[in-house]
Amino acid sequence: MIVSKLILTNWRNFSRVDVQLGDRVFLVGPNASGKSNFLEVFRFLRDIAKSEGGGLQNAIAEAGGLKKIRCLAARQNPDVEIEVHLSDGAGQAPRWRYAIGLTQDNEEAKARLVYERVFQNGNQILDRPNDDPKDKNDPERLTQTHLESTFANQEFRDVAKFFERVTYVHLVPQLVRHPDLFVASKITGEPFGLSFMDRLAKTPKGERTDFLKRLGKALRVAVPQFKDLSYVEDEKGKPHIQVIYTHWRPRGARQQEDQFSDGTIRFIGLFWALLESQGLLLLEEPELSLNNEIVRQIPALMHKLAGQQGRQAIVSTHSAALLSDEGIGLEEVLLLIPHSEGTDVRPANSFEEAKALVEGGMKIGEAVLPLTSPQQMYLIEP
Amino acid sequence: MGAAFYIAVEDDLSDAVARRLLNHVRRGFQVRARYPLPALPHLHPELSGYGYLRVNVQAFNAAAAKTPHLLLTDLDVAACAPELIQEWLGGAAHPNFIIRVAIREVEAWLLADAKNMADFLGLSPGDIPADVESVAQAKEEIVRLARLSPDAEIQNNLVPRPGSTATTGRLFNRSLIGYVQNLWDINDAAANADSLARALRALCSFKPT
């Protein structure tokens, strides 16, 4: 299944979003236009649905409170609304529709549901609070979703499972190298790298060996001096990735992740996520620290590894190199256009000029990035 | 509000010049987007300067049907502007597509305002070449003139360091962009550079379809 449609009202810097999504989506927009906020919706749903430490209240707390979630441009309609359609493939009728509206009566009160609705194949199977007298009699019930409860989500368990499998990757190399140096407020599913080595350790051995073999092969193309990528545990039982760095000494030198370059760590993290992801994969600016020649391969890798078997990948990027792949269609690109009332999200193929440029032979990134890039950057003064 | 243009330019300096021209004709013209992405030549060094414009001129011509385009390029070594356009486009441009060619480089248009250029460089107007459109390499000419400047800052910003392989000083483009925005008198320049005068006329008479 993939998320085939996303509808948002008053989420972060989006007063209103209504977009179709395919199995591969590229988010393009200037700095501070809300690319991360867009991806965050799916993390938010995952945080509600996840079986360990999940739930609506935890998800809202992790997002900084409903006041922070609510769109700054919001005026008359302060409810935050999220609706997600899940389909078997792009452009197909939704198998599931899940929608919630959120509000908060005052700053001391817990955020609560205005509604929670589920549709299966077009038929509504959940309509809170309307069809549940208990919701009306006990307002406290509306501080929890049915999505987060194994008892209550029985009829739409697939939706909960789908959200729970959302993977988000935004590796910070320093955190992978030296997790001990940082105060470990290890959020479950923490995406920034503190728990990356732990994740590796928790992967079943057979799968891990297979992944590392494929990763090692790919890494060797990018960094020919690296060979024999392997998983090792030190005397304290701590997990490490190790390579042999070949040089003039006949046996080469062993290197572990604390000696890897930023680019190497990000390459490993990206590739691992593509291998590991089971459902929706969110990638934040995967081009960072990577050579353009590697970046150019990311869209094809996304398709080969994540875009098969009903998997889906959404990637935010500033990179013309990433968008230089001729296999990318304008319909796969979403443009984030900021204005005074928040940010609009529009598919790039709705821009007639961009379409004409691409039909005239221009590469997608070259046609689309100037539409969202800051102008006259030469005016910046130190 | 006037038409919102896509501009296609060789570099930041041409970007600044194109914006001043659009502003100068007082028809409320806006810039919607600039092509190429300024960082793009780093990806495709072979497409720096006019190379990118030439490769994509058909795409701009097609997109001009949807929104006005202004392309500004240097004639460099080509024989004449109509020939260059014919060679690039192989036919007539869409009426919404304004192609203007600086003879022989956009820097010549800046030299053409001799009084202000002389003030900027700390020289006298007599030091600036009179027939700017016959200067083969106007950019190099500005660097050459900057070497004669008594102004240490001009020397520092516009002239490459001794022994460097750089062709301009480290702040050459930024300094000239400042000149374009604050000092450059377009009417005086147009009186001395026919290709600039024609560019202005094209913008004044432009009717988007």
Euclidean distance between termini CA atoms of chain A: 49 Å
How would a textbook summarize the main sheet of chain B? Answer: 4 strands, parallel
Residue windows where pLDDT falls under 50 for at least 5 positions of chain B: none
Give helix % range of chain A: 25-40%
* Biggest protein-protein contact in the assembly: A-B, 26 and 30 residues
Helix content of chain B: 40-55%
Q: Work out the number of β strands of chain B.
A: 4
Question: What structural class do you assign from the helix and strand content of chain A?
Answer: alpha/beta
End-to-end distance of chain B:
16 Å
Taking the sheet with the most strands of chain A, its summary is: 6 strands, antiparallel
Q: Count every helix of chain A, treating DSSP H or I runs of 4 or more residues as helices.
A: 13
Roughly how many Å is the radius of gyration of chain B? Answer: 17 Å
Describe the protein.
The complex is a heterodimer of chains A (382) and B (209). Chain A is α/β, with parallel strands linked by helices and 382 residues long. Chain A has 13 helices and 15 strands. Chain A has helices at residues 35-49, 56-62, 66-69, 133-137, 157-164, 173-177, 196-202, 205-222, 262-276, 292-295, 298-306, 352-359, 364-372, and strands at residues 2-11, 14-20, 24-28, 80-87, 96-103, 112-120, 123-128, 167-169, 226-233, 239-245, 253-256, 280-284, 312-317, 333-339, 342-347. In chain A, helix 1 (35-49) packs antiparallel against helix 2 (56-62) and helix 1 packs across helix 5. Chain A is globular. With 209 residues, chain B is an alpha/beta fold. Chain B has eleven helices and four strands; from the N terminus they run E-H-E-H-H-E-H-E-H-H-H-H-H-H-H. A four-stranded parallel beta sheet of chain B has the order 2-1-3-4, with helices on both faces. In chain B, helix 1 links the parallel strand 1 (4-8) and strand 2 (30-35). In chain B, helix 10 (186-192) packs across helix 11 (194-205). Chain B is globular and about 50 Å long. The two termini of chain B are 16 Å apart. Chains A and B meet through helix 12 and helix 13 of A and helix 1, strand 2, helix 3 and helix 9 of B.
